[in-house]
Automatic annotation (TrEMBL):
Pfam families: Prenyltransf. Its EC number is 2.5.1.-. GO terms for molecular function: ditrans,polycis-polyprenyl diphosphate synthase [(2E,6E)-farnesyl diphosphate specific] activity; magnesium ion binding; Z-farnesyl diphosphate synthase activity. Its cofactor is Mg(2+). It comes from the Bacteria. Keywords: Magnesium, Metal-binding, Transferase. The keyword Transferase applies. Belongs to the UPP synthase family. Z-FPP synthase subfamily. InterPro entries: UPP_synth-like, UPP_synth-like_CS, UPP_synth-like_sf. This is Isoprenyl transferase. GO terms for biological process: polyprenol biosynthetic process. The lineage of its organism: Bacteria, Bacillati, Actinomycetota, Actinomycetes, Micrococcales. PROSITE patterns: UPP_SYNTHASE (PS01066). Binds 2 magnesium ions per subunit.
């Protein structure tokens, strides 16, 4: 009988070798979806599903680090998620905080992507203290998207831009003239970073749900049926292989 584990490892190595001749994404976005459904099908609690999903994020980052992908944005908590039951949110806040600690302990740089005002003050303080300990020399930067919504990000960017221009004493007409694609981009949560080349979404859902709406205009997408806690390195390699085989047209 053939060992399924052996076949898996052989296939995984073959995929990794295929990728050696390609340029991999410089910015990978991941919509981590399916924690609750995974837990339900396994007969476990919702909190257990979220903890399994958080552990998978740390695995993903180690895989990306090994592949020299320098920037990963992980969507952990949307603005819509903030309407979940208080007891689920309380557990989520603790899990997210522990995950950020784990990312920093792994030697990666953390950057928050989202509206911090949407989070409890104690959580914001804990994250801020954790960021102070983070290495600035890491090969991998991780954008942790919490309290994040794509529409909200664009609104926040435009508001900040208008306030900056108003502080300069600009007239209403001058402010309107100064609003451009570039000026808005300079006020996004991801300012100074390249747009995502590839965005992965798990759980079988094939929609953006507002993830990096502005930045994803030329992104490639890869959807898989697997719930996030069940995502494997071989799934990442398959997504990267598919990305590398595509002819990117950038809207042309």
């Amino acid at each position: 009988m053939v060992d399924d584990g052996l076949l898996y490892r052989v296939y995984e190595r073959r995929l990794a070798r295929e990728l050696e001749s390609f340029a991999l994404p410089q910015h990978l976005g991941v919509i981590v979806d399916g924690n609750r459904r995974w837990a339900k099908e396994a007969g476990e609690s919702t909190e257990h599903g979220h903890r399994a999903g958080a552990a998978k994020i740390l695995e993903l980052l180690s895989w990306c680090d090994g592949l020299d992908i320098p920037l990963v944005t992980v969507w952990m908590l949307s603005t819509d998620n903030l309407r979940r039951p208080p007891e689920e949110l309380a557990a989520l806040y603790g899990i997210i905080g522990s995950t950020i600690e784990g990312i920093i302990e792994a030697g990666y740089r953390v950057r928050l992507t989202g509206n911090p005002e949407a989070l409890p003050e104690s959580m914001r303080a804990d994250i801020s203290r954790a960021q102070e300990r983070a290495s600035l020399e890491s090969r991998l930067t991780v954008n942790v998207a919490i309290g994040y919504g794509g529409r909200e990000e664009i609104v926040d960017a435009v508001r900040e831009l208008v306030r900056d221009l108003a502080d300069q004493g600009r007239s209403g007409a001058d402010i309107a003239e100064a609003i451009s694609v570039d000026s808005i981009a300079e006020h996004l949560y991801t300012r100074g970073q390249p747009d995502p080349d590839l965005i992965i979404r798990t759980s079988g859902e094939q929609r953006l749900s507002g993830f990096l709406l502005w930045q994803s205009v030329h992104s490639e997408y890869w959807f898989c049926e697997t719930y996030w806690p069940g995502f494997r390195r071989i799934d990442l390699l398959r997504a990267l292989r598919d990305f590398c085989r595509r002819e990117r047209r950038f809207g042309s």
